[in-house]
Design goal:
The complex is a heterodimer of chains A (112) and B (114). Chain A has 112 residues and is mainly beta. Helices cover 0% and strands 58% of the residues of chain A. In chain A, strands 2, 4, 5, 9, 10 and 11 form a 6-stranded mixed sheet that branches. With 114 residues, chain B is mostly beta strands. In chain B, the strands form 2 sheets. In chain B, strands 2, 4, 5, 6, 9, 10 and 11 form a 7-stranded mixed sheet that branches. In chain B, strands 1-3-8-7 form a 4-stranded antiparallel sheet, with no helix packed on it. Classes of the chains: A mainly beta (112), B mainly beta (114). Chain A binds chain B through residues 4, 8, 32, 34, 36, 42-46, 49, 87, 89, 91, 93, 96-105, and chain B through 30-31, 33, 35, 40-45, 48, 50-51, 54, 90, 94, 96, 99-108.
Chain lengths: 112, 114
């Protein structure tokens, strides 16, 4: 079983739609959680950190459920420019540093 | 405002050749790492370093060596290239004290081994 699992998609949605991505992680010692965005043939870029209290950044809302080991990302009012792969990322601290595991990503296509 | 710089951007190697992928960061980050990305596999950690002089193996270290003689540089060496090492390689850096801020990635090196 992969340590971080995501639905690979693709998700095909019209502009203006609301779309939700889910992610589960297996290691309960995980401490930091992120969503990254990766455009085709580009490097991943940090979209937002995820906190237990939930956090929002404009049209994007991230939630963390530690009891269920589940992370979500909600995108409201989808734009064409939101088309990308969204990576769920989990980190835990080790002596001297931290170990970060990336999910395989969920592809999103937003269509006009 | 360079961030993380990777060179080269593209490389074709013949089986058995060796080469070094370069990675440099100017953010004074303690933590640096190398990932490879293959279709459907996500990013897999090859090697990482928590500071100058300290390196450790990640998930898929075989066939690769690293060194960290300075805070800024973290080169990845392919000892004897194999077709299975055809992939996109990303270098990333992060701050130990700001672990919640995630990583900054370089733009990647697309390597083909023939």
């Amino acid at each position: 079983r992969k340590e971080v699992e995501q639905d690979p998609g693709p998700f095909n949605v019209p502009e203006g739609a609301t779309v939700a991505f889910n992610c589960t992680y297996s290691n309960s010692a995980s401490q930091s959680f992120f969503w990254y965005r990766q455009d085709c043939r580009k490097e991943p870029k940090l979209l937002m950190s995820v906190y237990s209290s939930g956090n929002e950044d404009g049209r994007f809302t991230a939630q963390l459920n530690r009891a269920s080991q589940y992370i979500s990302l909600l995108i409201r009012d989808s734009k064409l420019s939101d088309s990308a792969t969204y990576l769920c990322v989990v980190s835990r601290y080790l002596t001297g540093g931290f170990k970060t595991i990336f999910g395989a990503g969920t592809r999103l296509f937003v269509k006009a | 405002n360079a961030g993380v710089t990777q060179t080269p951007k593209f490389q074709v190697l013949k089986t058995g050749q060796s080469m070094t992928l370069q990675c440099a960061q100017d953010m004074n980050h303690e933590y640096m790492s190398w990932y490879r990305q293959d279709p459907g596999m996500g990013l897999r950690l090859i090697h990482y370093s928590v500071g100058a002089g300290i390196t450790d193996q990640g998930e898929v270290p075989n066939g690769y060596n690293v060194s960290r003689s300075t805070t800024e540089d973290f080169p990845l060496r392919l000892l004897s290239a194999a077709p299975s090492q055809t992939s996109v390689y990303f270098c990333a850096s992060g701050s130990k004290s700001e672990g919640r801020r995630g990583y900054t990635f370089g733009s990647g090196t697309r390597l083909t081994v023939v």
